[in-house]
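worker-03 picked up job from queue 'complexes'. Input manifest follows; three sequence lines, order preserved.
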Amino acid sequence: MIALLDCNNFYVSCERVFNPSLRGKPVIVLSNNDGCAIARSDEAKELGIKMATPVFMIVDLIKKHNVQVFSSNYELYGDMSDRVMRIIKSFVQVVEVYSIDEIFLDLSNIKYQSIEQLAIDLRQSVQQQTGIPVTVGVAPTKTLAKMANRFAKKFKKKIGVHYAATKEAINEMLTVTEVGDIWGIGHQYEKLLLLHNIKTAFDFVNTNEEWIRKNMSVVGHRMVKEMKGIPCIKWEQTPPPRKAICTSRSFGNLLTKKHQIEEAVAAFTASCAQKLRKENTVANTLQVFVQTNPFRHEDKQYFASQDLHLRVPSNNTKELLSYAMRGLNNIFQNGFNYHKAGILLTDIVPSKFIQLSIFDKPESSQQKNLMKTIDKVNRNFGRDTVRFGSQGFDKQWHLRRQYLSKAFTTNPNEFLTIKI
DNA sequence: TCTGGGGTCCTAGGACCC
DNA sequence: TCTGGGGTCCTAGGACCC
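worker-03 finished. Artifact:
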C-alpha cells in the first residue's frame, strides 16, 4: 500500500500558523511579483477564486469580502515543509518527498496497529507539532493514492483520511472522480476525453487501451494501468540528479535599457551557479533568454534566446557570467519593453567528471575557495551579501512583494514575540 | 498599472551516417 | 526514365506536475 500525505492549502496554512486571526477568513497567497493567486483557503475557494487567477481580475472580490492577501514567503514555507517531513519520517522510513507539501509513503513493510490508525496518527502529530492540517490517501498505487487523497478532501473532510484497498472501494472512487481530476490529466487531455464521452476515471479505465496508447502515448497508458492497481510509476527515494537548472523572473517594471537587463541576468546566473555548487555539479550548456510581455498587445513583441556551449564545464560564477553576458549581448535589441529574462543550464554532470582537453587549465583552487567562501557568507548572512559587480545594486528588475509576512522561523530578527 | 517559476517526460521530424 | 533503407542523435514543441 502507498499513502500520499499532503498539506491542505499549504502556503495559506503556514501564514495561519503565525497569524491565527486569519482562521475562518478568506486568505490567498500570491505568486512571484504578486501576480496570481497560487494558494487559497477554503473560504477563498468558496468565493470562486480559482488557482492562478491574476490579482487584478479579482480586486473587487478581494475588497468586498475582505480577503487577506500575502506575497509568497518561500523562506517560511520551505522551513515549515522541512518540519512536516521530519515528523512523517519519524513514523515511516521509506518515503518520497514529492513536492514542498506532498510526500509518498511506502507502507508495505510497516508494523502498526492498522494502516488507518497510522494515517490518523500521522495527521494528528503533524497538526499538533506544526499547526499544519494534512490529508492522507491510501491505495495500491501512486495514482490511486493521489485519488484517495482527493476523495478524502472532498468526502471525508472531518477525519481527513481515505483508505481504498478493496476492489469495491477503488471502484467507488473511480466512479466519483471526474476525468480532469486524475493525476496526469491536464486541460488538453481532459478536453480530448470529454469529447469522446469519457467523463469519469471509471470510464477512462474501461476505455480501449489501444486507443489510449495512440491518442495519449505511453503516458496515458501508464495512468490507466496505475488505476487498475498495477504500479508503473517509479519510486524515487532519493531525488535523481537534476537535468536542468533555471532561474528566471518577470521584472517588477518593464525594462528598456541593456544595463538593467544585464544586472538581472547576472543575478540569475549567480543563482544558477550557486545551485550547481550546492549539488556538486557543473553545466556544459548555458542558455540566456529575454522576452517582452505577451499580454501587452500594444507592445512590439520580441522573444530571443541563445545557447552557449562552455569550453570547459563549470559551476564558477565568474566563468558562467562571461558566457551569459556574451549571449545577452548577442540577443539584446534596443526598442523593446522587456518583461522577463532568464538563465537555463543544461547538460549537467557531476563535477568530478570534468573532461579537460590538453590546452585547458583546471579551475584554480583559489577560484574554488572563493566560490566556497561566497556561498558560505551568503548562507550565513543572507542571499546577495557578497555578489559580483555585474549584479549591480539598484535592482531595477526587483520583484513586487507588497504583502510579505515575516521569516518567523528562520530569521532571529523576525521571530514572533509573545507576551505571557 | 496588474497575468509565476521551476521542473519532467514524450514524440515527431530533421540531420547525418553507412 | 530510373533516385534505398535502416539506424542514431539532437532539438523543438507540447503535455503534464506542483
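worker-03 released lock.
The longest strand of chain A covers residues 338-350.
Residues 30-36, 38, 52-57, 59, 72, 217-219, 242-250, 293-295, 342, 400 of chain A lie near DNA strand B (CB under 10 Å from a C1').
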